[in-house]
Amino acid sequence: MNSYTPAMVATNLENVRKRVREACLQAGRKPDEVRIVAVSKTFAVERLREAISAGQGDFGENYAQEMRSKAEILKDESVRWHFIGHLQSNKVKFVLDRLWLLHSLDRISLAEEINKRAADLGRTVDALIEVHTTDEATKSGVLPNEVLPFARALAPLEHIRFKGLMTMGPFSDDPERSRPCFRTVRELQAVLRRETPDHMTWDELSMGMSSDFAVAIQEGATIVRLGTAIFGSRSATT
């Protein structure tokens, strides 16, 4: 996927939708149960426009200021912005006004800052708790055995709606290595549904990327985050 042509994004999106649909049917699920988020970090706005023209509405960004810049350029487009990277508390102000869903809530201090700024804006923010399910130190998230107390501690925050969980599988060429991570999160979802207040809903599971999304769908993913499968290699970002 290193050679880029303007038609590539539309072609890739068509292939991705087909593969997601096939994975859903093989897992006995309805294709409309899974939302595709196009991970557009570092890619030029022109590629996002090509995806929008091909019917893509959900985009995921990892860097607060990059998301703010793209959101401003594309403010007249029907785009749902997902923030999927590690969010620093002092960068919340850059994303909150355009944010549709935060995937990476992993600290009480971050939740408190979001809650405060959302209150100032008179809005409520939808968020997922990020779960750290691998032994890779480079990944963020709440450890599985700490997710329930973490969720309970966040329950009083009135300007955040807790919608579900997010995780990343290990860096591997074998998608099956991600299955235990995804299964852990699905099991945590069941615990949270039983053990947290009714106003906290846990219907969304954001898990699965270009290399392992079929396994994620088998394990219950409702959101898959696909970058290179849609936009191609990041070795060329124009």
Q: How would you characterize this protein structure?
A:
The chain is an alpha/beta fold and 238 residues long. The chain has a single domain, classed as Alanine racemase (TIM Barrel), CATH 3.20.20. Helix content is 38%, strand content 18%. The protein has helices at residues 8-26, 45-53, 64-73, 92-95, 108-121, 147-154, 179-195, 213-218, 228-231; strands spanning 35-39, 58-61, 80-83, 99-105, 125-131, 160-167, 204-206, 223-226. An 8-stranded parallel sheet has the order 7-6-5-4-3-2-1-8. Strand 1, helix 2 and strand 2 (58-61) form a beta-alpha-beta unit. The mean pLDDT is 94.
Helices and strands in order:
Layout lengths: L7 H19 L8 E5 L5 H9 L4 E4 L2 H10 L6 E4 L8 H4 L3 E7 L2 H14 L3 E7 L15 H8 L5 E8 L11 H17 L8 E3 L6 H6 L4 E4 L1 H4 L7
Parallel strand pairs: 1-2, 1-8, 2-3, 3-4, 4-5, 5-6, 6-7
